[in-house]
Amino acid sequence: MNKKLIYILMIPVFLLNMSCNEDEFLTEVNPNAITTEVFWETSDDFEKALNTVYGALQFPSVSGGNLSYEMVQGDLAGTENWYPQSPFGELNFTDATEHVQNKWNELYIGIFRANQVLHYIADADIEDEEKALVIGQARFLRAFFYFQLAHTYGGAVIHTALPVTDEDFEKPFESIDEVTTQVIVPDLEFAKANLEGISWTGDDLGRVSWGAATSLLGKVYLYDESWSEAAVQFKEVIDSQIYSLTASYMDNFTHENEFNSESIFEVSYSDVLKPGVNGNTIDDTPSETGSEATALNISMAQLNFGGYNTVLSSYYLHELMVYDEIDPSKTVNNGFTFSQRMYASIVPINGDGEYYGLPIGDKPGWAFGQSAYVKKFSNWYHLEIEDGNQRSGINFRHIRYADVLLMYAEAILNDQGNAAVAEAISYIDMIRDRAGVLTIQQYLNDNGNTFPAMHRSVQVHGAFDMVAPTADNLLTHIMLVERPIELCFEGHRWKDLVRWDIVSNQLTTLRADEVWRENNLATIQGQPPLMITERIRPDYAVSAGSYTASDNYFPIPTGEKQINAGLGL
Prior knowledge:
Blueprint: H1 36-39, H2 43-56, H3 68-71, E1 77-78, H4 86-89, H5 98-121, H6 128-153, E2 155-157, E3 173-175, H7 176-195, H8 210-223, H9 227-240, E4 263-267, H10 296-300, E5 312-313, H11 315-322, H12 340-345, E6 346-348, E7 354-355, E8 358-359, E9 372-374, E10 396-400, H13 401-416, H14 421-435, H15 440-446, E11 451-452, H16 458-461, E12 466-467, H17 471-487, H18 493-500, H19 503-519, H20 521-524, H21 543-546, H22 558-563
Antiparallel strand pairs: 1-5, 2-3, 4-10, 6-9, 7-8, 11-12
Helix pairs in contact: 2-5, 2-6, 5-6, 6-7, 7-8, 8-9, 9-13, 13-14, 13-17, 14-17, 17-18
């Protein structure tokens, strides 16, 4: 839905019906209150209810400002140890950590709202076609919430019906496989079948679509390493010709080009509606007025421009961006030293263009080991300073067409091996060509059928090794170069590292690079490619030494352990 008719507040009627003794109820009835007996009747009722399910997507831990806690996990970003995000970068969070509890709760609010719609619509007297459309959207959203739960916590407690008794809350924690089989895949298959041919326009922009259901289903199969099944889903999206890459990479990260040709699943925010409400405020109770804005911008923007620069580009990502080599023949690169992907994503001291309307470096910053700040999801391109109430209207894209192309390339390389190399390169190069950087095919043509292994630090190890275009080398490129550069800060990275089982290797490798920089600071200080000054930021000093497989997922929150006897804990 667009910003003219964004998500409505949760209606007071959406309250859990617990079984209690009749004597415990008040006998007086408020004649002005909406009740379940009169609410769940009309198409308009179900549209309002469905909008509250969409509204849960806006919660800070689902698509908003609190994603910063997860962005500092892994290899693309770090933070300073005085910020509350630091335990996530160090992998020192616990079951009592606030974000661990908040994300769980926010996702289950979304699931509960979806379950309400699905429960009451079953017997509603509305047209079957309209009913199927509402159910398809609700089941997609429930599947999305469960996908996030499963791959954040390593599983979930499955609730697909409204609880009636206390015992209905007491359910076991199920594995990723169980959640996927019991809920996610059936919900997405239903959504895919019932949203086919539906096109949303006007005030309905932002509703989920056939393309979103098919893309997420492909992603589910990809995470399950069901390569051929994943490839089938992604190829359907590609062959549908519904989606295309935007002409400009940056079109995906401003408030001006929303629901564009590349957008497959996008969450809407507005800094105009509900003025004054902090961007982290959510409508999780009937009395709460939620914000329609996001506060993610504050974690990205530099301190002197109204942010906290909580999320900082890692040296690894910064160097990947530096060597994202531009094609000088592309007009998009006229006047640029670095790639369009760097321009839209991070800002080093020697970067291109302006930052919040000023030449880069005009205000203090880029010191104390902070080599680059994050631009993506901040308002650097049109404001002089961020909103003081932590409000931004930049939408969050959970699925972009570029991601589908890369996931398809990954799926066919794993499924077909070297037989898929040429096809995979063609899809990777679509993305590189849009970004105005040298394509893999150009490298092959100019370097004796080899291309650079760009994931190793030139600063630490010297010139890139040149490698042959094999399936293994291209998969390494997708994992360690293309996805990091293209999709940084979009909520995918930690889950990617976990599913590939390369967390330990990445943390150990980057800690070794970090130590080299610490030992050579006097030589590299203020020098390209990273222009680091004063110190080396120790992003991996703790995590590289402490990581175990148990860190792959958040623990079950302490709040759930206290109320759910079904966990058996």
